[in-house]
Each structure stands twice: as C-alpha cells, then as structure tokens.
Amino acid sequence: MPSAPRIRPIALAIIRRGDDLLVYEGFDKATGQAFYRPLGGGIEFQEPAIDAVRRELIEELGAELADVEPMAVRENIFEVNGRPGHEIVFYFSASLVDPSFYMRDDVGVILDEGSPVSWQPLRRFEAGQATLRPVGLLELLRDRERTRPAGPPG
C-alpha cells in the first residue's frame, strides 16, 4: 500500500551575484515547462535546517557555504510532474566559499542527478521569461530589497 502524502521540510540557499540568483533548472514533465529553483533539499530527522542547507550544497554542487543566515520560512503547496507536493521551506541567505563559482554563468550540474546549475538574472523571472520556484520567492527577494536599510551616503 502506498504511503500517504507528507509535508516535506526543506532548506534552500539564496545565493546572489549582484542581481543574479544561483539556481538549478528543472523540468515539469506533466506541463512541459522548465523552471528554476535555488539549490538545497530535504531536512533529515533531527537535523537543524541550517546544517541541512550546508550539507545539501556540498552534496549537490561540491560547494561550501559561508555567511549562512536565516531569511524566511514559507509554506509551498504545488504540483509537479502531475503530482501534488507540500513543503515547509526554510530560506537561508548565503555565499559560496570558493570564489570561482562567481566567475562563470554556467556553474555546472547537480552532482547526483545532472540538472544544470547557473546564475539567472532576477529580471528574467520578473519579465515572465522564466519561472522561479517556489512560488512567492521572487516577491520575497524584492520585499527584502525594499526593506534593506540604505548604505551610508556617497
């Protein structure tokens, strides 16, 4: 007998390069649509979310994180590949320890499954030229920019 659907806790790394966001490219087989999503993944039982995001980036990209800070927690109810999903998403702002990741637009692939990883400009998502997942992430990023204190005068 199949197990009942579950709510999955995940931790995602919000890594920026100016106005670009580090994401992997996914594909929804049911809709035929590509989408982009920050790297990260499932939180294991009794694993703090901040440890999960660090572990996931090492597993997915072979990359160590620095400056990892909690950013937000959001609920994500969605459908992908014709199946319903439900996640509690822990977002963490972070940077990459290895500066070479910032020097190329195509960063590589997710090590355990091969999805392409790249820097994508937020303006692509704002213009509707590409889809950013989870739903609401683009608004979260823009809200944070609007409420960020201004730097010292020039």
What's the number of helices? 3
How far apart are the termini?
Answer: 65 Å
Order of helices and strands: EEEEHEEEEHH
Helix content: 10-25%
Instruction: Quote the CATH topology.
Output: Nucleoside Triphosphate Pyrophosphohydrolase
Structural class of the helix and strand makeup?
Answer: alpha+beta
CATH hierarchy class name: Alpha Beta
Overall body shape: globular
**CATH level 4 superfamily:** Nucleoside Triphosphate Pyrophosphohydrolase
The count of strands amounts to 8
**Largest sheet, if any?**
8 strands, mixed
Spans of at least 5 consecutive residues with low confidence? none
Could you write a compact summary of the structure shown?
With 154 residues, this protein is an alpha+beta fold. 19% of the residues lie in helices and 44% in strands. It has a single domain (8-144), classed as Alpha-Beta Complex (Nucleoside Triphosphate Pyrophosphohydrolase).
Q: How would you describe this structure to a colleague?
A:
This protein is of the alpha+beta class. The chain has a single domain, classed as Nucleoside Triphosphate Pyrophosphohydrolase. It is 19% helix and 44% strand. The protein has three helices and eight strands. Strands 1, 2, 3, 4, 5, 6, 7 and 8 form an eight-stranded mixed β-sheet that branches. A hairpin with a 2-residue loop joins strand 1 and strand 2. It is globular, with a radius of gyration of 16 Å.
